[in-house]
Design brief:
Blueprint lengths: L28 H15 L6 E5 L14 E4 L5 H11 L4 E7 H5 L3 H10 L3 E7 L35 H8 L3 E6 L3 H13 L3 E7 L12 H4 L1 E2 L8 H10 L4 E7 L15 H7 L3
Parallel strand pairs: 1-2, 1-3, 3-4, 4-6, 5-6, 7-8
Antiparallel strand pairs: 5-8
Helix pairs in contact: 1-6, 4-5, 5-8
């Protein structure tokens, strides 16, 4: 008998690094890490063929805690880095992790265009409606009347950013919302998001028990998304507007053309530079 012995299937723990998370006790991000590693094991994704890109924030520590290729980037630029990686290496499974501040504030422009570009990658946003790493300032998804931050003692007075609605309007071909307090459903959502061919956006309601202790009540408030999964963007938009923002499930899924730039390996940086010479 010849050939290589069959590969031993990896378990969820094999996708975790030896670095211990430094998140606060009770943080929802622990459950996201657990669900992600379970999803990777279920899909049997080779670690050397998987990349996890992040920006800045509590959630963006995720690459350090996983045993896949990782890149901890700069604030708001995770999708830009991930898009460049996917363009150069379309063979890789590219995952992106961030938070509501990193993704929807400084990274908001990249979010819009990543959705419409529809490259084959998965964007996981751990949304706790606060800047946790910088001590509790209001974020784009913070409700306008939240007045616990010293920077906004009377609340922001600004309507909250609706991630699912923006992702849908911008062209994402997979839009879903999950809850870190339901790890089984979270794992399933991650599996389906990664399997989807195109830009998959997954908003994860992930409580910050340090600066938003009231979010412990989310476990009672989260419910199944009111509308059925649809490939009709108009129907999905209506369901999103009716929902209270706490509905979990796959909202929209549609097979759309996946954008992948044509890369000519024969071209060099030197040739590109000469093309701009005056």
């Amino acid at each position: 008998m010849t050939g290589q012995p069959p590969a031993i299937p990896l378990k969820a723990k094999d996708y975790k690094s030896e670095i211990k998370p430094v998140w606060c006790p009770g943080c929802g991000h622990f459950a996201v890490l657990s669900a992600l590693t379970k999803a990777l094991a279920y899909l049997a994704l080779p670690r050397e063929q998987t990349a996890l890109i992040s920006g800045i924030g509590c959630s963006s520590r995720l690459p350090a805690y996983t045993e896949v290729y990782g890149f901890h980037g700069v604030h708001g630029r995770a999708l830009a880095v991930a898009s460049g990686l996917k363009a150069a290496r379309p063979d890789l499974t590219v995952l992106v992790a961030g938070g509501d501040g990193d993704g929807f504030s400084i990274g908001g422009n990249h979010f819009l265009h990543a959705c419409r570009r529809n490259m084959d990658m998965t964007y996981i946003v751990m949304d706790n409606e606060v800047y946790g790493m910088t001590k509790g300032q209001a974020s784009p998804t913070t409700s306008p009347d939240w007045a616990q931050s010293k920077l906004t003692p009377h609340g922001t007075g600004i309507p909250s950013f609706n991630p699912a609605a923006i992702a849908l309007a911008s062209g994402a071909s997979f839009v879903a919302r999950g809850f870190s307090g339901d790890p089984k459903s979270m794992t399933q959502l991650l599996v389906e998001a990664i399997q989807h061919k195109g830009f998959s956006f997954l908003q994860v309601l992930s409580p910050c028990t340090t600066f938003r202790p009231e979010q412990k009540n989310w476990k009672k408030e989260v419910h199944e998304f009111s509308g059925e999964t649809t490939d009709d963007c108009v129907a999905a938009a209506q369901h999103i507007q009716i929902d209270d923002g706490m509905g979990a499930g796959i909202i929209y899924r549609r097979e759309l053309p996946v954008w992948q730039p044509v890369v000519d390996p024969t071209h060099t940086v030197a040739e590109l530079t000469r093309g701009f010479a005056l």
